[in-house]
């Protein structure tokens, strides 16, 4: 665990010196690449040691980013609980402002109120009403450019959160966000900084964490491997695709 923390600290220091946003892509998967048995349902994959590592990584980042699908399915607190340290700022990619006010981020005192990364478009009476209600509940809503498919442009979203003082982001998923980040990385090798992937010794045959990324394959190089309890963790800096 210490070697992964040192690896992350060194990357954070280099990014700070270069005045760049530091982005860690991290998630857990099974041996067959599944992150859940069924879409929309939580599947516990990581062991205790890997979970502790994840919480340690959270203390080292300013923000933690997930998609609205993961928030609705898992209702996570996105706090630090297994180690001592500050909890990161929740960042939710939520193009249409579907974040429910009943989720833990609004109802639990231990949780920080979320920043919602929404598409600046498609405004109608319902979306305007949701925006007003979420802001009244304490959310910060950041309006972002849209991709050609009408989704949140992650490059613009990351630029905006960096301008607001977030210097490091931990991307935890789910599948749509992981794939979107890696698709940007396939054309912009500076988008992601580090990758940390926990592999549990299980075959699940469920929802894959990453969809097809052709025509380029983002890669980690040089890659390191560490054992954490029953799990194996592969980690390294992102390198230009081959």
UniProtKB/TrEMBL annotation:
The annotated pathway is: Cofactor biosynthesis; riboflavin biosynthesis
Q: Which GO BP terms, alphabetically?
A: riboflavin biosynthetic process
The protein's UniProt keywords, in alphabetical order, are:
NADP, Oxidoreductase
Matching InterPro entries: DHFR-like_dom_sf, RibDG_C, Riboflavin_Biosynth_HTPR
- Is the keyword Oxidoreductase assigned to this protein? yes
The stretch of residues making up the signal peptide is: none
Ranges for domain Bacterial bifunctional deaminase-reductase C-terminal come to 22-233
Q: Which domain of life is it from?
A: Eukaryota
Q: Which GO terms describe its molecular function?
A: 5-amino-6-(5-phosphoribosylamino)uracil reductase activity
Reply yes or no: does the keyword Oxidoreductase apply. Answer: yes
Protein name, as recorded: Bacterial bifunctional deaminase-reductase C-terminal domain-containing protein
Organism annotation: Aphanomyces astaci
């Amino acid at each position: 665990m210490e070697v992964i923390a040192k690896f992350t600290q060194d990357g954070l220091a280099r990014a700070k010196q270069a005045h760049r946003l530091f982005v860690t892509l991290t998630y857990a998967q099974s041996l067959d690449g599944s992150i859940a048995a069924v879409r929309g349902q939580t599947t516990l994959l990581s062991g205790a040691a890997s979970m502790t590592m994840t919480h340690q990584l959270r203390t080292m980042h300013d923000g933690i980013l997930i998609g609205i699908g993961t928030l609705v399915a898992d209702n996570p607190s996105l706090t630090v609980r297994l180690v001592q340290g500050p909890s990161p700022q929740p960042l939710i990619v939520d193009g249409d402002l579907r974040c429910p006010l009943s989720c833990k981020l609004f109802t639990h005192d231990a949780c920080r109120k979320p920043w919602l990364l929404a598409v600046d478009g498609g405004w109608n009476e319902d979306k305007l009403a949701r925006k007003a209600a979420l802001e009244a509940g304490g959310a910060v809503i950041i309006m972002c450019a849209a991709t050609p498919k009408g989704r949140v442009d992650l490059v613009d979203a990351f630029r905006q959160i960096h301008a607001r003082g977030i210097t490091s982001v931990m991307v935890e998923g789910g599948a749509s966000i992981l794939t979107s980040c890696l698709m940007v990385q396939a054309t912009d090798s500076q988008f992601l900084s580090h990758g940390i992937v926990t592999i549990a010794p299980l075959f699940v045959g469920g929802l894959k964490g990453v969809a097809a990324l052709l025509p380029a394959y983002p890669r980690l190089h040089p890659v390191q491997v560490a054992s954490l309890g029953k799990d194996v963790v592969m980690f390294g800096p992102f390198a230009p695709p081959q």
